Amino acid sequence: MNGFSNRITKLFGIQYPIIQAGMIWASGWRLVSAVSNAGGLGIIGAGSMYPDVLREHIRKCKAATSLPFGVNLPLLYADIDKHIQIIIEEGVRIVFTSAGNPKTWTGILKEKGITVVHVVSSSKFARKSEEAGCDAIVAEGFEAGGHNGREETTTRVLIPAVVDAVKIPVIAAGGIATGRQMLAAMVMGAEGVQMGSRFVASEEASSHINFKNAVINAAEGDTMLSMKQLTAVRLLKNKFFKQVQEAEQRAASADEMRALLGRARAKKGMFEGDLEEGELEIGQVSASLDSILPAGDIVKNVWHEFSTALQNPVKKI
Questions:
Q1: Which is more confidently placed, 313 or 97?
Q2: What is the secondary structure of 147-188 as a DSSP string?
Q3: Domains in the chain: ranges and CATH
Q4: Between β-strands 192-195 and 223-226, what pairing exists: parallel, antiparallel or unpaired?
Q5: Distance (Å, rounded) from C-alpha 27 to C-alpha 29?
Q6: Per-residue model confidence as pLDDT tens digits over 155-171
Q7: Nearest to 87 by CA among 51, 48, 42
């Protein structure tokens, strides 16, 4: 398939403006290298990795692909200074930051020649990211899985607002798993898309097969945004989700919510496959997924559908 050229493909040096989100417990070197080798941009999810594990995944990814890939770095991570040092030492060229103030580390990364992209859920923080020197922005709508904006702004509302607010290129995220959804985002002004849930349901994702099967079996309404008192996150409904919901309904304190969340709850669900006691982070678009595919096929399928829909947007593919 032919490639595509815009500010995003040029910024990252990729064939297609399709980015795989750096999801915790899913985005290891196998998934990342498979996406990059298919012409997209793979992103290592550093949020669930100790520093030595991150270094291992970067090195294995380098061995598995000669094409660009990046690292997603949640800025609230306890060992972030160690992660930053490893990223610099290992020569990573692209970093996506999230969950924090982009001013803290963007300047340091940029001094090392690293391309920096920040994930936002509002036009206000998009402007702050641009002011901090970020090269691009991921605007992530309410539909997305994982941590999300408390404002509950949908992707269809957020993307045009952010595009109007900044001059740097915008990548759309939240509720995107198909080429037609990608086309809709591009029509609204985005120059690329970031997909998480679609790549969770891939063969190479390091998430547990139980979680992958739960994702492709999800129906409309099976996910809900919760834990706004701590940090908003969209979860697949299960026993743990019900406990969170009950605590929220009785106005539990932040300390009680933290105790309920505990340690390793996300690992228990998404990596170890405990579908009752684990935290299962996934987007609304999971309701439209029905298959676990090789990541390379996902990239090619999305691009084919996008290209076909671009020629005839009314015809159903």
A1: 97
A2: E--TT---HHHHHHHHHHH-SS-EEEESS--SHHHHHHHHHT
A3: 7-207+288-310 (3.20.20.70), 219-285 (no CATH)
A4: unpaired
A5: 7
A6: 999 999 999 999 999 99
A7: 51
Q: Give the N- to C-terminal CA distance of the chain in Å, as an integer.
A: 17
Which token pair is 284?
A: 């609304």
Give which of 181, 213, 187, 188 is closest to 301, Cα–Cα. 181
Looking at residue 33, its amino acid is S
Handedness of CA 272, 278, 284, 289 (dihedral sign): positive
Name the token pair of 115.
């391309």
| Encoded tokens for 21 | 């989100």
Instruction: Point out which residues pair with 70 in neighbouring strands.
Output: 43
- Print burial letters for 78-88: b (CB count within 10 Å at least 16), e (below 16): eebeebbebbb
Q: What amino acid occupies position 28?
A: G
| pLDDT of amino acid 247 | 84
Mean pLDDT of 13-21: 98
